C-alpha cells in the first residue's frame, strides 16, 4: 500500500534532484532529497518504537519506589540486581543487534528487537517471584539495548543532511514521553488496580502490545538504500532509493543507466570490518568510553531520584508523582532543541549540557522543597535527554555506513555496562553517605565527559556522512 502511494506520485514528477543525474550514487541521490511523507513515516515508526523502549527503562524508576516501600521492603542488594538486570541485558544485546543491523539490514534488526522486547515484557508481567522477574527484565534489556542505536543508525542513513539532527532529536524527544507515560500509568492504577492485578504488571502487559505493534509497523518501511549500496546490493538499493524519490515527486535516473556503485565498491560490513580498520577501532573506542561515562549521570539520576525522594522523607505516592512530573521536561525540551540543533556545533552542545547537569544535580541534592525538587528534576532530565540525543547524532555522523550499527551498538553496550553498575554502586553510597555523596559521583562523571568531548573531533552538522 505504501509502495503504491509512493509510485502514485511518480507521474507528476517532472524534475530531478540536483544530484540525481546519471552516474549519481545512491548516497548522493538520498542527500539531494527534501523531507517527504516517507521520511515522516519512518520517523513516526522509529519514535513509536523508542517510546516503548523508554517506557520499559523508566519502569525501573517506578519499581524502585514500589519495592523499596512496604509491603515489599525489598533488600537493597535485591533491588540493585533487579534494576541492573535491564542494563546488563542491554550490554549483551546491543552489540548483537548492531551486528544484525550491519549484516541483515536496519529494518529487520529493528523488528527483531521489538519482538524480543515484547516477549521479555510479557514474561515479566507474568513473573511469579523476584528471580523470574529479574530474569525477564534482563531479556527485555537485551532488546532494549539494541533498539536505540539501530533506530539512530536507520534515521542517519535515510534523512537529508540538513535535517538529520532535527529528525534524530525529535525521535528522542517525542519518544521520551514513554517515561512519563509509564510512571503516570503506574501511579494512576496503584490505588485501585484493575482485577486486583498490580499496576506494574499492567504496565508491562501494555508494553508487550506496544512492542508487537511497533514490529508490525516497521514491515512496510523501506530498507536503508545507503546500507544496501554500501554492502553491494545495488539493484535493491536503487529500488529503495526510487521509493524516496517518488515520495518527493522527483524523477529517478533512467533505468538504463543502472545503479551507480558505491565509491570503492562494496564495503565489508559489521564487526569484521570494524576490527580490520585501526582508525575505526580508535573512533569506536572513544565513543565506548563516552557512552560508558554518561549513564552515571543521565540514567543514574532518573533511576534513583525516586529513592532519594523517599530518603528525604516524602511518601511513595509523592515519589511517583515526582517521577512522572520530572519526566515531562525531556519531550518538550528535546523537541524544541530539534528546531535549532542542525545549526549548532555538536561538541559544544554536549559540553554545555554536561555542565548544566552538574549544577542541577547539586541543587537537587541540597533541596528539600517539593516544588524545587520537581523543577530541578525536570531540568536535569531535560538536559540528560538532550545530551543523549545529541551524543547519538554526533556518533552516527562520524561512523561510516558499513559499520555504523556495529560501532554504535558497541558504544551503546559500554553504556549499558555502566548503567548496570550505576545502581549497584550508587544505591549503597546513597544509603551510607546521603544524596550529596551520590551526586558527587555523578558530577565526577560529567566532568570526565566534558574533558573527553573537548579532546575529540567536531561534528558533521548538516554535512553528508560516509
Question: Mind explaining what this structure looks like?
Answer:
- By secondary structure, this protein is an all-alpha fold.
- The chain has one domain (19-251, 268-454): Growth Hormone, Chain: A, CATH 1.20.1250.20.
- The chain has 21 helices and no strands.
- The longest helix has 33 residues, at 401-433.
Strand segment count: 0
The helicity comes to over 70%
Radius of gyration over all CA atoms, rounded: 22 Å
Please state the second-level CATH architecture. Up-down Bundle
Q: So what's the oligomer here?
A: single chain
Using the alpha-carbon principal axes, give the shape: globular
Residue stretches low in confidence (pLDDT < 50, at least 5 long) are 1-20
Class by alpha and beta content: mainly alpha
Order of helices and strands: HHHHHHHHHHHHHHHHHHHHH
How many domain modules? Answer: 1
What is the makeup of the main sheet? none
* Helical run tally: 21
- Work out the strand percent: under 5%
Annotation keywords:
466 residues, globular, disordered N terminus, mainly alpha, 21 helices
List the helices and strands and how they pair.
Layout: H1 2-8, H2 26-31, H3 37-68, H4 76-103, H5 106-125, H6 130-158, H7 164-175, H8 177-189, H9 199-217, H10 225-230, H11 234-247, H12 271-276, H13 278-293, H14 295-298, H15 300-311, H16 316-326, H17 329-338, H18 346-366, H19 370-398, H20 401-433, H21 435-454
Concise summary:
This protein has 466 residues and is an all-alpha fold. 75% of the residues lie in helices and 0% in strands.
Amino acid at each position: 500500500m505504501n509502495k503504491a502511494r509512493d509510485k502514485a506520485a511518480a507521474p507528476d514528477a517532472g524534475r530531478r534532484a540536483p544530484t540525481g543525474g546519471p552516474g549519481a550514487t545512491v548516497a548522493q541521490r538520498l542527500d539531494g532529497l527534501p523531507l517527504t511523507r516517507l521520511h515522516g513515516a519512518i520517523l513516526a515508526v522509529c519514535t513509536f518504537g523508542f517510546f516503548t523502549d523508554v517506557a520499559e527503562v523508566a519502569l525501573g524508576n517506578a519499581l524502585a519506589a514500589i519495592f523499596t516501600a512496604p509491603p515489599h521492603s525489598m533488600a537493597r542488594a535485591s533491588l540493585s540486581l533487579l534494576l541492573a538486570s535491564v542494563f546488563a541485558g542491554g550490554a549483551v544485546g546491543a552489540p548483537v543487534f548492531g551486528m544484525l543491523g550491519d549484516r541483515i539490514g536496519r529494518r529487520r534488526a529493528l523488528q527483531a528487537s521489538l519482538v524480543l522486547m515484547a516477549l521479555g515484557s510479557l514474561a515479566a508481567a507474568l513473573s511469579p517471584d523476584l528471580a523470574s522477574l529479574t530474569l525477564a527484565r534482563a531479556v527485555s534489556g537485551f532488546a532494549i539495548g539494541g533498539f536505540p542505536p539501530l533506530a539512530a543508525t536507520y534515521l542517519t542513513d535515510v534523512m537529508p543532511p540538513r535535517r538529520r539532527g532535527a529528525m534524530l532529536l525529535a525521535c528522542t524527544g517525542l519518544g521520551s514521553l514513554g517515561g512519563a507515560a509509564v510512571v503516570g500509568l503506574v501511579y494512576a492504577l496503584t490505588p485501585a488496580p484493575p482485577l486486583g492485578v498490580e499496576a506494574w504488571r499492567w504496565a508491562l502487559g501494555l508494553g508487550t502490545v506496544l512492542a508487537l505493534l511497533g514490529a508490525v509497523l516497521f514491515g512496510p518501511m523501506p530498507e536503508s538504500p545507503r546500507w544496501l549500496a554500501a554492502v553491494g546490493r545495488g539493484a535493491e538499493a536503487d529500488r529503495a532509493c526510487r521509493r524516496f524519490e517518488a515520495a518527493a515527486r522527483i524523477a529517478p535516473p533512467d533505468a538504463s543507466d543502472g545503479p551507480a556503485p558505491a565509491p570503492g565498491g562494496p564495503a565489508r560490513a559489521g564487526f569484521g570490518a570494524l576490527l580490520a580498520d585501526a582508525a575505526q577501532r580508535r573512533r569506536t573506542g572513544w565513543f565506548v568510553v563516552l557512552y560508558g561515562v554518561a549513564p552515571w549521570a543521565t540514567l543514574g539520576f532518573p533511576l534513583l531520584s525516586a529513592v532519594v525522594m523517599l530518603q528525604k522523607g516524602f511518601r511513595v505516592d509523592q515519589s511517583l508523582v515526582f517521577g512522572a512530573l520530572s519526566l515531562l521536561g525531556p519531550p518538550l525540551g528535546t523537541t524544541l532543541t530539534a528546531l535549532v540543533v542542525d545549526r549548532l556545533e555538536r561538541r559544544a552542545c554536549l559540553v554545555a549540557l554536561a555542565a548544566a547537569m552538574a549544577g542541577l544535580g547539586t541543587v537537587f541534592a541540597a533541596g528539600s522543597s517539593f516544588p524545587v525538587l520537581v523543577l530541578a528534576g525536570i531540568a536535569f532530565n531535560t538536559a540528560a535527554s538532550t545530551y543523549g540525543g545529541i551524543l547519538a547524532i554526533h556518533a552516527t555522523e562520524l561512523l561510516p555506513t558499513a559499520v555504523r550499527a556495529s560501532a554504535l551498538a558497541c558504544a551503546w553496550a559500554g553504556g549499558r555496562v555502566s548503567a548496570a553498575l550505576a545502581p549497584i554502586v550508587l544505591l549503597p553510597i546513597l544509603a551510607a553517605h546521603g544524596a550529596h555523596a551520590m551526586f558527587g559521583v555523578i558530577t565526577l562523571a560529567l566532568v570526565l565527559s566534558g574533558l573527553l568531548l573537548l579532546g575529540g573531533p567536531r561534528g558533521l552538522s548538516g554535512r553528508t556522512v560516509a
